[in-house]
Amino acid sequence: MRDAAQLSGAAAGSTPASIHQGRVDDRPATLRVTGDVLDLGDAGALAWTEVDGIDVGTHDLHLDLAGGPRIRLHHLARAFDRAAEEIVDAWSTARRKALLQHPDVAPLDIFRAKRGAVPARVCLFGDRLTVEPWRGVPDIVPFSLLTDVQRDGWELALQLRGLQPVVVRHLGARTDEFLERLAGARRDLEQRTAGAYAEFDPALAQLPAADGWAVDEAAAGPPWSTLRGAFDRLERADEVRVLEALAGARLRLGLKARPGGLLPFALAPVGHRVVVEGAAADDRATFVFATTDVDRLNAVLLLTSFRREALSLPEERLGRWALAVRLLEHVRWARAALAARVVHDGDWEGRLHAALA
What domains appear along the chain, each with residue ranges and CATH number? Predict the structure, then answer.
């Protein structure tokens, strides 16, 4: 916990604070809930990324802090339910940003559920869902990795490509509604993905590719030559040609649709390395990972919303991404596997070959 003044800059310009009178442990306090911090008055202030869990009781809340301390908020009187909802909302939203999810996109819907015995929220987005328990590490389910949904009474098992299933329970009367909304969101994403490929090249509207999932020539089938030709028109076409010479038929190409536009990318397996190349002009560097598991690496890119800075920044510069490194196993795996970051400059090809040696 830090002094409120240390976090005042983070709170400035945020969503206006909601204010509640109550007690923090044994001290009276004015609580200010903002999108960035929970200001506890004289007791200091908490960045939401410092809170690892929340227990909501009948008349009090317990906040579990990273490192072990626990804070009790109580005596909120008739404002308790509203304060609890606002605190959980702000905490969930801030964690979602820090865990490399959609920082500026609100959920399409939120469903109350349980993961095991722990209360959780299932947040449905346009290209993924998150299962956010009030204690523990959230689950992230990009639709491009979701292969099936198996129902057993009130329990749902979300089957994922190459990952362990995510199981949620106790959606109650909204179970059928959730399944319908999930199916609709997945259909909408398929249509948007087809539209993105058609925007990239009209002949690619029927390409059998999922959002953010790269395909090789065998998976793409006849449209491959058109897809490959479309990459020849991009700013990093020369780099993609170098990667094709190295990877041959194992070269994979894909598109991720993002709010700022399309992100074309290439995955090139070369020996015991996989090269990740963003084919747009603003992509600053090529990433080389010490792995042969291309599918797992593509899954990590989806799970992290293609935010590669969390995979490459040194620990002292991680900032809010430190939470993702601390909590998410797939982020730690990718950071450990990162062998080189090759900046796009005049010596790019030579340093790439050195990184692959």
Answer: 4-98 (2.30.29.30), 109-188 (2.30.29.30), 203-356 (no CATH)
